[in-house]
Amino acid sequence: MLGEYRIEGRRAADIAAGVERAVGSGELEPGHLLPPMRELAQQLGVNPNTVAAAYRTLRERGVIETAGRRGSRVRSKPVTTGRDSVRVEVPEGVRDLGHGNPDRSLLPALGPAFAVAARESDLRPVQYGEEAVEPELARLARADLDADGVPAGPVLVTSGSLDAIERVLAAHLRPGDAVAVEDPGWGSVLDLAPALGLRTVGVGVDDEGPLTDDVRRALDGGARALIVTDRAQNPTGASVSAARAQALRSVLADRPGTLLVEDDHGHRIVDLPLHPLAGVTRHWAFVRSAAKAYGPDLRLAVLTGDAVTVDRVHGRQRLGPGWVSRLLQKAVVHLWSSGAIDASTVADAYGRRRTALIAALEARGVAARGRSGMNVWIPVPDETGAVARLLHAGWAVAPGARFRMSAPPGIRITVSTLAPEDVEPLADAVAAAVGPGPARRYG
After folding, report:
1. Average predicted confidence (pLDDT) for the chain
2. How many CB atoms sit inside 10 A of residue 71's CB?
3. Structure confidence at residue 441 (pLDDT)
4. Phi and psi (nearest 5°) for 212?
5. Is-cis flag, bond preceding 379, omega within 30?
6. DSSP secondary structure code for residue 280 in this structure
7. For residues 35 and 47, what is the distance between their CA atoms, to the nearest angstrom?
8. Residue 24 to residue 229: CA distance in whole angstroms
9. pTM of the predicted structure, to 2 decimals
């Protein structure tokens, strides 16, 4: 059942920690069946309640899953290992199109912004007990949000989108609650939910965003929260359209107890309009990151939402990091207000690269999607084989397993560094690796 690994420990915490370490090290692989609780209790000479407590801890941490009489087994994507482990090692000489990073040449120089921020901070250093949010950042962020139709709400700053999403989920949900997530979707969110002890319910995605019927079924089936990527969805490039937003808002309006979390990480790299869903449920949060437009190392996102949600997140933040560096916030203020990037130029650059690759693939009979952002998603019949053949041809792409739960196989290609002369050779390689095949739906 467990191969060479032997579970040990006398306390629930020790048993759980041992299993978690074994999963992280690879001694226990995904899918491994764990002993029945009474059997393991007898082996260890402990009370069955002790083993039950250990298994409960492992479930809440997203390490194992229990399927009634079929027993408990290591999750197919255990949180301990994380989806980032499902990646391709890129040999020397192979082009890496699986990294998911923005084009460095489109990112602004950070030195001037931090120099300005440092001078301001030298004149008036931030002290303990001051406001967590730089006033000018709050003003700029709120003005942008107002212009995009995001409902009024207080503004908070977090250490990136994922930090904001984690804090919002933790503020309202408890282990065992279900959350509806896009499938395929952002792998970090698919890892985060089980790490918080939450159950994930996948909803399919097409070019216009989450499928309305799937969202309705997920919420009617008990999901207490819904996470939606408004634009530049990772990995498919979906962008919520006006019609889809109207349909989803109608579903949410009939279920006002749903916690809605919107992620707009495509802000300032996408030329499609925002169609927010917020405002029809009692509790909601809208997150906007600086990472894609200004650089991944700027671990900063602005968060707004209903007053209760933002207050809960702020209160918990005060007990942890306290606040996101005001020096960093001042630098982002300078980047935003100085026009450090031309958003339309950035969006156009990514758009031309996506469009060129999708058109070249279509000419070869290969269906691909990428309505916005910097990624193209290609459904494939054999994900592992396609990735391996492309690697052999000199192209490293991201396996779809990093982004899927039950959605069909696919591969993600990041076009941010794709040069015009790369398009035709890459399309030839993809066509040879995956073959033609229509696909209109992602999940």
Report:
1. 92
2. 15
3. 41
4. -60, -45
5. no
6. S
7. 15
8. 29
9. 0.84
